[in-house]
Design brief:
The complex is a heterotrimer of chains A (about 240), B (about 250) and C (about 230). Chain A has about 240 residues and is mostly helical. Chain A contains 10 helices and no strands. The chains are: A mainly alpha (about 240), B alpha/beta (about 250), C mainly alpha (about 230). Chains A and C meet through helix 3, helix 4, helix 7 and helix 9 of A and helix 3, helix 4, helix 7 and helix 9 of C.
């Protein structure tokens, strides 16, 4: 085994991979931004009174939940230009990043819609009634009473969704994005497929560390924001 | 029939039981009274090995076990001889009333299912739940759940039934139905060790009352003596707190 | 849009369903009991094992499945080659059916997910249930088999359903091991005439149907198992 496996390749891989973590974060960041906006819209549709809107939102969420990321990615990558062509638009010069961000925004939106809905529904109706009863407007009641409480409930689920997003984002390499995963494939190609294992070990350590950091950050955030809630728990 | 010697139990730095001795004869109904935190519940749990005592012995007629070093087999034997009624019922959520009652018979005692079902139905009839064989705990009121809990204990025909504050989780209006079931089984000669705050039960049903405080037994005797002329100052103070002023004159 | 191709390829994609299901079922059969036992080591704080389970779960949950696949797919052959050389076994590691690698990867992955699921589900069953089981004379094993596990399963079922759907979805990454599952079959069919849009539409449909079915089956089963919970007086 020694002649096939050489740990020094692991160390060598880190400085080559780390600069590309930026790209991984860029994809995640943009997808979170657009995905959250779309997620809010979907959640509103689900919670709203329109039956058609509710059906559409539910259908969208079910479909996205059942679709593997890689399938969605290629569906967007091949499907979007094909649709655009019908409208006389050419997508030839569009950056790959656009397709990737669209894919993961669509996916993140479905996850966020559920996170937002369940957080909203977890808040007792009495909270809103109490807010209005002391003279707050509907908007003020949402902004000052409902949202801060729902935010705390949503936080851990948001963190989990973000972790999923970053991990699933690794599949962007399949259409040629050079993020940390894509760079690892390039390194392996450059070594003529030798020492792939060492490169993947380095790559997995990078993902692992990112995940642990995100997890810890969210645990901290939860602690900071849930001060009011803890009092309720202990009494 | 059951003799307990010198039970000690600490949780971390707090010594809850500081050497308790207790003797119970067959057919006795013994009620343990005492302020909360006095170690009553812990004593009961140690006898059934739900807590492991730090030291102490229990003598169940033919067998003598060290409460600290008992083997798995000894623990199992003692549990077969005893039954426990929990404060919060602890009915098996995934089983119907009848299944709750027969579980110990069929699985623990290997009694054939048909026979166990007969015994279970009789036990449920006895606690007045003939209509509720197939009800799940979530469909029963607290009082009904606790009566199932009692039937589950009675059906095992144990040497002794341990009651851990069986009515204190109940709404006041449901306490009566549970107490009257307990009275009935006491009349049948069941040996019972009961931790409770129900003074009327202690007065009417018990033939021995034990007053515990601070992890020791302060005083014990027939209910009449304990209630009307307690010897120890701590017992007097406790009774004074929990009983209406003129209660003692009723006895 | 080539409709004939769309219809034909749908059946090509469909023919990959058995492989996806076999991998899913084998992985679950391994992961469910193993995950449950490792969850118990964490709850009972068994010294070395609980530490192991913790790091294991953290690593699997912290890394993409595709990276896990690549690690197994590039390390197991290395290990086997050196083993074969050492014991002079005349067998080529490249003749091994890739489905074995899939079993390994997805079992390892799903076990970690199950540990987390069971850990939180066991936490919801109160200690009193176990005490009551002891008090009526059940042994430890009997108490778990008859009282604790049935209750844990009901609480865990929705999460097990999600994990199963995710597992089916993850088998789409089998292409990285040249596994002839849904995605790869349809993709290969599309390579001939570049009908990628149609092919991926088919793949999308197959997963949609498959996962919806699985969710439906779980919902039915959950209803049956949890009848004691939903019952009302």
């Amino acid at each position: 085994m020694e002649k096939y496996f050489n740990a020094s390749y692991i160390w060598e891989s880190f400085p080559m991979l780390l600069p590309y973590v930026k790209v991984t974060f860029l994809v995640a960041g943009l997808s979170v931004l657009f995905g959250t906006i779309l997620g809010f819209i979907l959640a509103a549709m689900k919670l709203g009174s329109s039956r058609i809107a509710r059906k559409i939102a539910n259908g969208y969420i079910t479909a996205l939940r059942c679709t593997p990321s890689i399938v969605l990615l290629f569906l967007v990558y091949y499907g979007l230009p094909a649709i655009a062509e019908n409208f006389g638009l050419l997508f030839d010069n569009v950056d790959k990043l656009v397709f990737i961000v669209i894919t993961f925004s669509l996916q993140f939106a479905a996850a966020m819609a559920e996170v937002i809905r369940s957080a909203y529904q977890s808040i007792d109706k009495g909270q809103f009634e109490a807010a209005v009863s002391v003279g707050l407007s509907d908007f003020q009641a949402y902004r000052r009473i409902i949202f801060p409480q729902a935010f705390v409930v949503a936080l851990p689920n948001f963190g989990n969704s973000l972790l999923e997003l970053i991990k699933e984002g690794s599949l962007a390499y399949t259409i040629g994005l050079i993020d940390v995963m894509g760079k690892a494939s390039l390194i392996i190609d450059g070594r003529f497929n030798a020492h792939a294992l060492e490169t993947y070990i380095a790559l997995s350590v990078i993902y692992w560390v990112i995940s642990i950091i995100i997890e810890q950050v969210f645990l901290k955030l939860e602690k900071i924001f849930s001060k009011g809630k803890q009092v309720i728990k202990t009494t | 029939m059951l003799e307990i010697k010198n039970i000690h139990k600490s949780f971390g730095p707090n010594e809850i039981l500081k050497g308790v001795d207790l003797k119970i004869e067959k057919g006795d109904v013994v009620v343990i009274l005492g302020p909360s935190g006095s170690g009553k519940t812990t004593l009961l749990r140690c006898i059934n090995f739900l807590e492991k005592a730090d030291q102490g012995h229990a003598n169940f007629g033919d067998i003598d076990v060290n409460l600290n070093t008992a083997t798995k087999k000894q623990i199992h034997t003692i549990r077969q001889k005893t039954a426990f009624v929990f404060q919060n019922y602890n009915l098996f959520h995934n089983k119907t009333a009848l299944e709750n009652v027969t579980e110990g018979l069929i699985i623990g005692r290997k009694i054939p299912k048909a026979e166990a079902n007969e015994m279970g139905k009789k036990a449920l009839d006895k606690v007045g739940l003939s209509e509720k064989y197939d009800a799940y705990p979530s469909e029963l009121s607290g009082g009904q759940q606790q009566r199932v809990g009692i039937a589950r204990a009675v059906v095992l025909n144990p040497d002794i039934i341990l009651f851990d504050e069986p009515t204190s989780a109940l709404d006041p209006e449901l306490v009566g139905e549970v107490l009257s079931v307990m009275k009935n089984i006491a009349k049948e000669g069941t040996t019972m060790l009961v931790v409770t705050h129900e003074m009327s039960f202690a007065k009417d049903v018990a033939n021995k009352v034990v007053f515990m405080d601070g992890g020791v037994i302060v005083e014990e005797g027939p209910p009449k003596e304990i209630f009307s002329k307690p010897k120890e100052e701590r017992t007097k103070q406790f009774l004074h707190r929990v009983l209406p002023e003129d209660y003692i004159f009723y006895i | 849009m080539d409709f004939k191709f769309l219809v034909d390829t749908f059946f090509v994609a469909l023919s990959g369903v058995p492989i996806a299901l076999i991998i899913t079922i084998i992985s679950l059969l391994i992961a469910l009991p193993l995950g449950f036992m490792l969850a118990l080591t964490r709850i009972n704080k068994i010294p070395v094992l609980q530490r192991f389970a913790q790091v294991y779960v953290s690593f699997i949950r912290g890394t993409p499945v595709i990276v896990q696949i690549f690690i197994v797919y590039s390390s197991v052959p290395l290990l086997l080659t050196s083993l074969f050389e050492k014991y002079h076994i005349d067998k080529n590691v490249y003749d091994i059916n890739p489905i074995w690698y899939a079993f390994i990867v997805f079992s390892i992955n799903t076990t970690a997910i199950m540990i987390e699921i069971f850990r939180s589900a066991i936490g919801t069953v109160s200690k009193g249930q176990l005490e009551a089981a002891y008090s009526v004379g059940l042994t430890n094993v009997q108490a778990f088999r008859r009282i604790i596990i049935p209750q844990v399963l009901v609480t865990a079922l929705p999460n097990i359903c999600t994990a199963t759907v995710n597992l089916i979805k993850a088998t789409s990454l089998g292409y990285a091991m040249s596994l002839q599952e849904i995605t790869l079959r349809a993709k290969v069919a599309a390579n001939v005439g570049y009908n990628y849009v149609e092919a991926y539409l088919d793949i999308f449909l197959v997963y949609l149907i498959l996962c919806s079915l699985v969710e439906y089956v779980f919902k039915r089963y959950e209803k049956r198992l949890s009848k004691y919970k939903t019952a009302h007086a």
